[in-house]
Amino acid sequence: MPNVVKGSKQQKMVVVPHRPGRxxxxxxxxxxxxxxTAAGGFGYGYYTTISQQQGDLAERVELQQQISALQAENGxxxxxxxxxxxxxxxxxxxxxxxxxxxSGLRTRVAQLEQEIVYYRQVVNEETEDTGLTIGQFDISxxxxxxxxxxxxxxxxxxADGDTYLIGHANVNLIGTIGGEQxxxxxxxxxxxxxQLDMRLRFRYFQNIEGELALPEGFTPERVQIAAVAxxxxxxxxxxNFTWVVEGE
Length: 248
Known about the structure:
Blueprint: H1 20-127, E1 131-141, E2 147-157, E3 165-177, E4 180-185, H2 186-189, E5 198-202, E6 205-213, E7 218-231, E8 235-242
Antiparallel strand pairs: 1-2, 2-6, 3-4, 3-5, 3-7, 7-8
């Protein structure tokens, strides 16, 4: 028994078995736990990264699809614009062709009117060798809307150069306003005419010309010309001309 100093505090001694294998196992378990935690953190980080990359990839794919759809729609719109441009050009060409055809027809009508006047003169010459006749009547456009130039030529057939033809002429424009027929004396629509009955006095021919202005809403159809010769031969003539404007 060991020597013990009386009055001193005694420490109890515990005998612990010496087990070096258990310590190794504890260290190994701790190491494995740390490794497992690190692996879990790495796995979670890797999974999170992969998930984010997949989400980004899916978003890029969706954006690419939207871009492709927009490009396809843009291509369709461009094709539609091209088609409309071509259609507009075709309509314009068609309208120009129609206007050209109308102008040609009006010119032809004017020519036919002149031919009719000529043949009527020939017939009149066969039946009446002398006297008053209408030599020409023309209408042409001006640079002002609904304003036109007119020219009426009265002549004396078989004039001898010494005898004056004396008489008067009356010109009326016939058309419609609001579907109703209207007769407008030349005096009312032309500042160059002061009287209803325009005086005639000439040896060979006499020109009656000036400008006329159409009232708003009035649609002209024909021109009626009536004339009376008192000397040297009494004669009454009346003739209608279709409203045809040269150059339209």
